[in-house]
Amino acid sequence: MDKKQSLELCAALSNAKGAPGFEDEVLAVLRRYGEGLGSFREDSLRNLYLSRSGNQGGRPMVQLDAHTDEVAFMVQAVKPNGTLRFTTLGGWVPSNIPAHRVWVQTAAGDYIPGVTASKPPHFMSEAERKAQPAVEDMSIDIGASSREEVLRDFRVRMAAPVVPDVTFEYQEKHDLMIGKAFDCRLGCASILRTLDNLRDKTLNVDVTGAFAVQEEMGTRGATVTANTVKPDLAIVFEGCPADDTVAEPYMIQTAIHKGPMLRHIDARMITNPRFQRYALDLAEELGIPVQESVRTGGSTNGAPIHLSNQGVPVIVIGIPVRYIHTHYGIAAHSDVENAARLGCIIRGDPPPPAPRHFGADGRRADQPLLSPKAAPPWGRSFFVDPIKTVPYALYTSAKIRCPSWLFAVDLSPFPHIQP
After folding, report:
1. Bridge pairing between strands 61-67 and 233-241
2. Of 59, 117, 124, 318, whose Cβ has the fewest other Cβ atoms within 10 Å?
3. What share of the chain in percent tops pLDDT 90?
4. Cis peptide upstream of residue 386 (ω within 30 degrees of 0)
5. Do 116 and 99 contact (CB within 8 A), yes or no?
6. Residue 215 a catalytic site member
7. 42: β partners
8. What is d(CA 49, CA 26) in angstroms, rounded to the nearest whole number?
9. Alpha carbon 220 to chain centroid, angstroms
10. Which phi-psi region, left, alpha or beta, contains residue 185 (left: φ > 0; alpha: ψ -120 to 50)?
11. Which of the following is catalytic: 23, 215, 216, 238?
């Protein structure tokens, strides 16, 4: 996939309307641009699965994750004056909502324009002007003058999804994309780009792209995809909040133009440190720019995935996006390219044999056997029996090359890589 095709994909995904639970347009775009990369299937929630061409079954499974929904709104009621009361879908800051164009779905399934409205300052009291805006005091105006007109002529009804009305733009000179829903349509694009990069490659693993619904409502879709795919390893692609315009310089950890961000922790997941270290070391070795962060809030689909199927090692490859969870996002296309490059760490190259000075349990040959509680970190194994164990040292030693599928699988089918 060349740059022109990639930008066309990003534009089509960004422009698609996909409120949580109403991701239909996004799935249509993914099916169109993913044709030839594998076989598609859906579940009843409309999670979309793309099984890579070349999957054989009976091998370790790698799940590539991104979510298809976006922060949006839903019509809660129609007021007598013809405006629409609404509720939020996903996390919005109320002050960011008014005075923007939106698309409102009709009973026929098409979308009509509207404007998020609030009381003009001319009619506000002094107390109202000083108060923070509240969503319940806002409305969406589609131009109707009565409830009857909304229902009869505009054909808008309760529970209609509403999304921001923003058209994707790209500035070639600055490599900047401006658009809506970059959280997480850029992640969706990264999955397709990764699978395209792996086209016709010989892998030691099976790979499935899982495009999950309703992430913005509490990572609901990924709870299902993880139990459907049953991955041994997962890579989550996410449009993540850039901090380069809001943080002090020493705290900037997610800047645009500086590569994808790999978080060590967020509110719901501590990233598997062995997998994380492997990805960071490999990025350095291959010259892929990356950033690291320690987050105290937020979460991704990594939260339900890493707790599924008795535990799954997960990393999150985040594409920095300024001003996510608003109508507009700003991101660098180069960060999408590098996210897809990093996503190809699942190649599955054979690892080197274990260093001779380590025994089968990870101890140095001259190290006395210690109790598990007293064993040093380099002497512990990452897994517990009855799964075949691999020395912890293999994962923590710098620059040791080992494939990502080594992290969470029963190694008995691979006798040539037993330590």
Report:
1. parallel
2. 124
3. 77
4. yes
5. yes
6. yes
7. 48
8. 13
9. 13
10. alpha
11. 215
